[in-house]
Amino acid sequence: MSIKYKFHDPGAIYFVSFAVVGWIDVFTRSVYSDILLESLTYCRKEKGLNLHAWVIMSNHVHLIVSSREGYLLSDIMRDLKKYSSFRIVKEIRESTIESRKEWMLYLFAKAGQQNSNNKNFQFWRQDNHPIELDPHLNMFEERIDYLHNNPVKAGWVTNASDYLYSSAIDYEGGKGLIEIDLLV
């Protein structure tokens, strides 16, 4: 059963989370994180995505996003997930050094067989719940702090801005791996 993105207000800013099927720790390898960053960058430049904050954890992603006028966030997110899943699975399939290759491909294939929307592999879980952020309730700051502190809570870094695959450094005046649209 497909659970569609529900972006009710096209002009709103949303907190969105999505995870790898089976919560597989795919993003422990930078090559896969870099593919996702390329996809985010492309969607920012070509698909109308405003990327306000982001973090890539080992098996899931948190974003704070909106869309530019004339674009639908649901379409952007669909395309982002579709393309990134295709590229990451392709990279895994063609890898000569990925020690978890057979195991991951088996789980992606099994998830794909259980989903009538897929023909072969399913990389991303379909369940997610975009949360519209109300600027009057300090929701931006709360969600940005939550998102950026995920690697700290996981024990990977002491300071949020030290985590490479996050926009935390951008909010401290530095320059991260990809360009973002700051909220503050």
TrEMBL record:
Molecular function, one GO term: transposase activity
InterPro entries: RAYT_transposase, Transposase_17, Transposase_17_sf
Signal peptide coordinates: none
Domain of life: Bacteria
Pfam families on file: Y1_Tnp
Gene Ontology biological process terms, A to Z: DNA transposition
Domain Transposase IS200-like: from-to ranges: 9-115
Listed name of the protein: Transposase
